[in-house]
Amino acid sequence: MSNDARAHYDEHGYYIAKGVFNPEEVAELERDFDRIVNQLLDTGENLNARWGGKEMDRLGVANTVVLHTHNVQQYSAAWMRAFMHAKFLEAANTFLGPDVVLHHSKLFQKPAENGSPFPMHQDWEYFPTENDTMLAAIVHVSAATDEMGCFRVYPGTHKLGRITGTAVLSDDDMLAKYPLENSTPLEAEPGDVVFFHYFLIHGSKPNRS
Questions:
Q1: Strand 151-153 versus strand 67-70 pairing type
Q2: Where are the domains of the chain?
Q3: Mean pLDDT, residues 69-85 taken together
Q4: What is the average pLDDT across 12-38?
């Protein structure tokens, strides 16, 4: 990773690392992604992580779906290898320094036509750290376009520090100040990874593809 990558992350709160995983690696990750989703669906467990609240009502997305589960590395050797991948760790080291620990992982699937949005929020309230050095990394196993509800951000908002009232249901003042419609879409290709600070205000639109 170049100094430019670190400078971009420090200034904007995120960085899109292109082609971290090659096509063969992406294909393996996608196969295990689909396997995990199908196995979980077979259990009959409710996997829908759709948010509630007035913002979802405003967006008219009451019947949308986003499937999720935690810690995919426990179910997949391929995903464990991905988190230990040299290019992935090189990027994490660039933004965090050499002492990196995996806190957890999540799988999200936003189905076509009715994939649920995420209202704008920060992540820190879910897992606050002493020095606020946590980041998140989105590994793309398929293309993510604006129409598909790709990741969206307000660049530079990580500099605001901790904003309370953004976990689970962001408060009305925050949503009014940072409407989903005015955020910046970060489109990505398979194999790309978006790294972002856990103070960065972010969300996503529905998948309308």
A1: unpaired
A2: 3-204
A3: 96
A4: 97
3-204: CATH number: 2.60.120.620
pLDDT band (50, 70, 90) for residue 80: very high
Alpha carbon distance 112, 2 (integer Å): 36
% of the chain beyond a pLDDT of 70: 91
- The pTM of the full predicted model, rounded to 2 decimals, is 0.93
Distance between CA atoms of residues 81 and 13, nearest Å? 26
Nearest to 14 by CA among 133, 95, 111, 123: 95
Integer Cα distance of 20 and 151 in angstroms: 18
pLDDT, average across residues 41-48: 82
Over the stretch 160-186, which tens digit does the pLDDT of each residue have?
A: 999 987 765 567 777 888 999 999 999
Tokens (6 digits) for 155: 């660049």
Q: 3-class secondary structure for the chain?
A: CCHHHHHHHHHHCEEEECCCCCHHHHHHHHHHHHHHHHHHHHCCCCCECCCCCHHHHHHCCCCCECEEEECHHHCCHHHHHHHCCHHHHHHHHHHHCCCCCCCCCEEEECCCCCECCEEEECCHHHCCCCCCCCEEEEECCCCECCCCCCEEECCCHHHHCCCCCCCCCCCHHHHHHCCHHHCEECCECCCCEEEEECCCCEEECCECC
